[in-house]
């Protein structure tokens, strides 16, 4: 099966901040879920040299939070309508310190798998995110958010 290709309208970089959740639900038997840490995301669809356009994802920042270290991320295109809409899967991994304990080895691994429904409109890219979170590999939470990502000039 051919990999979908993003339409040209997605070219460039799009930046958005997820400050608030629409909802969050702790999964049965999971540890308590703490306060959501706002995250700034940067999605880019760019060409490097003479190569094809490539989709990249960088988690551009986690709001001045020293509880989170070692962020890693990736982004895959799932589908597109060929015009202004695309569905993507974003993977974000980081280590988080246990509450008030910043000693070495006192972290747990967090993996957030987000399905991003992206629709480009005149005022920017409207993104609806549904997130499945795990803590040390075990199911932890489901969360939902929406944000407006803006196109970066240049």
Structure description:
- This protein starts with 11 loop residues before the first strand and ends with a strand.
- It is an all-beta fold and 154 residues long.
- The protein has no helices and nine strands.
- It has one domain.
- Strands 1, 2, 3, 4, 5, 6, 7, 8 and 9 form a nine-stranded antiparallel sheet that branches.
Strand content: over 45%
Question: Structural class per helix/strand content?
Answer: mainly beta
Cα-atom Rg, whole angstroms? 16 Å
Indicate the low-confidence ranges by residue numbers: none
Gross morphology: globular
By DSSP (H or I, 4+ residues per run), the number of helices equals 0
Mean pLDDT: 89
* H and E string: EEEEEEEEE
Helix content: under 10%
**Count of beta strands:** 9
Total separate domains = 1
Largest sheet, in brief, is: 9 strands, antiparallel
Measured between the Cα atoms of the first and last residue, the distance is 33 Å
Q: Which descriptors apply to this entry?
A:
single chain; mainly beta; nine-stranded antiparallel β-sheet; 154 residues; 0% helix; 63% strand; globular
Tell me briefly what this model is.
This protein has 154 residues and is mainly beta. It is built from no helices and 9 strands.
Give the topology, please.
Layout: E1 12-18, E2 23-26, E3 39-47, E4 53-62, E5 68-80, E6 85-97, E7 107-121, E8 124-135, E9 138-151
Antiparallel strand pairs: 1-3, 1-9, 2-9, 3-4, 5-6, 6-7, 7-8, 8-9
């Amino acid at each position: 099966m051919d990999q979908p290709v993003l339409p040209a309208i997605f070219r460039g970089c799009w930046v958005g901040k997820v400050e608030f959740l629409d909802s969050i639900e702790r999964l049965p038997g999971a540890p308590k879920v703490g306060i959501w840490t706002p995250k700034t995301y940067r999605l880019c669809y760019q060409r490097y040299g003479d190569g094809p356009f490539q989709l990249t994802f960088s988690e551009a920042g986690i709001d001045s939070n020293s509880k989170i270290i070692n962020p890693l991320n990736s982004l895959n295109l799932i589908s597109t309508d060929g015009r202004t809409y695309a569905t993507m899967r974003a993977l974000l991994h980081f280590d988080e310190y246990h509450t008030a304990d910043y000693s070495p080895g006192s972290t747990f691994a967090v993996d957030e798998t987000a399905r991003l429904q992206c629709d480009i409109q005149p005022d920017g890219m409207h993104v609806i995110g549904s997130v499945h979170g795990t803590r040390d590999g075990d199911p932890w939470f489901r969360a939902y958010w929406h944000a407006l990502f803006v196109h970066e000039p240049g």
